[in-house]
């Protein structure tokens, strides 16, 4: 069987097709399938679906799904945040299909499509799966977002920077009026992540991973 245009297939015990989602209904169903496997389960009624829905169909090529025959077995859903950055909102592979290279294929497909759209960076938030992203060439930062109690921002950020994060490069910003602190790491530090998570009450703590995309034909 020859692959359909725009699709990407591998021979193996089961043939896996990787292709963009076809329509909004498929996008919502896939988000639910992936969201159920997220460390922080969510479904398409969550506001984190809204960016994806709003960017469909313009960024359809960044919303990719993996299929075994007629069954969805994984996906990676991304959209353009601005001209330079693609945000990968969610990725998962169904349990029985993990460790076969499908996650890597999904990420590489998103990166290829992002390059074709002229983006220079892919970024995403993660937690315990930081090792997967580091293995695929993504740079880790710790990200603190004062969503639970914004009033604790000054006190907690100062305590972090003079305590467990002392000496690390950091910068502050805000997103949708939420105060944020980024801390640069040179490798995944799950131990540090757990230490700082236990030390704060007002903020969500995660990893923000990013990868610079080299354009094809450009010097490495
Ligand atoms: C993360 C996830 C998508 C990986 O999917 P997968 O299909 O099993 O991954 P792959 O088989 O393609 O692995 C790709 C590479 O990453 C490596 N890898 C996978 N998980 C890893 C981890 N936790 N730490 C380090 N390396 C890891 C693999 O060894 C493989 O290496 P190789 O290509 O050099 O041989 C899958 O585990 C999953 O769905 N997890 C639950 C949902 C989730 O946590 N999503 C991420 C939220 S950001």
What are the salient characteristics of this protein?
single chain, 220 residues, alpha+beta, Aminopeptidase, Alpha-Beta Plaits, 2 domains, ten-stranded mixed beta sheet, 6 helices, 31% strand, binds coenzyme A
Task: Give me the CATH superfamily of the largest domain.
Answer: Gcn5-related N-acetyltransferase (GNAT)
* Each distinct ligand: coenzyme A
CATH class categorisation of the largest domain: Alpha Beta
* Portion in beta strands: 25-35%
Q: What is this structure, in a nutshell?
A:
The chain is an alpha+beta fold and 220 residues long. The chain has helices at residues 24-35, 50-54, 102-116, 130-135, 153-162, 190-199; strands spanning 8-10, 16-20, 63-68, 71-80, 85-93, 121-126, 139-145, 170-175, 178-184, 204-212.
Describe this structure in words.
The protein is an alpha+beta fold. It has 2 domains: 8-119, Gcn5-related N-acetyltransferase (GNAT) (Aminopeptidase, 3-Layer(aba) Sandwich); 139-212, RRM (RNA recognition motif) domain (Alpha-Beta Plaits, 2-Layer Sandwich), CATH 3.30.70. The protein has 6 helices and 10 strands; from the N terminus they run ββααβββαβαβαββαβ. Strands 1-2-3-4-5-6-10-7-9-8 form a 10-stranded mixed β-sheet, with helices on both faces. The two termini are 36 Å apart. The mean pLDDT is 93. The structure holds coenzyme A (COA). Residues 37-39, 91-93, 98-104, 126, 129, 131-132, 135 line the site of coenzyme A. Coenzyme A (COA) binds next to strand 5, helix 3 and helix 4.
């Amino acid at each position: 069987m020859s692959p359909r245009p725009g699709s990407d297939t591998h021979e193996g015990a089961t043939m896996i097709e990787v292709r963009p989602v076809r329509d909004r209904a498929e996008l919502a169903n896939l988000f639910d399938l992936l969201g159920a496997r997220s460390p922080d389960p969510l479904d398409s009624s969550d506001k984190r679906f809204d960016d994806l829905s709003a960017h469909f169909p313009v960024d359809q090529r960044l919303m990719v799904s993996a299929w075994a025959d007629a069954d969805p077995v994984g996906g990676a859903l991304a959209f353009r945040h601005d001209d330079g950055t693609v945000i990968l909102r969610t990725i998962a592979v169904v349990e029985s299909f993990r460790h076969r290279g499908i996650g890597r294929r999904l990420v590489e497909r998103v990166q290829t499509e992002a390059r074709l759209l002229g983006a220079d960076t892919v970024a995403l938030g993660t937690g315990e799966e930081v090792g997967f992203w580091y293995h695929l060439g993504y740079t880790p930062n710790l990200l603190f977002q004062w969503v639970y109690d914004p009033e604790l921002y000054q006190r907690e950020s100062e305590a972090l920077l003079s305590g467990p994060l002392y000496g690390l490069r950091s910068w502050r910003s805000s997103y949708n009026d939420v105060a944020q602190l980024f801390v640069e790491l040179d490798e995944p530090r799950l131990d540090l992540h757990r230490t700082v998570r236990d030390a704060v009450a007002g903020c969500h703590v995660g990893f923000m991973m990013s990868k610079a995309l080299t354009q094809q034909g450009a010097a490495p």
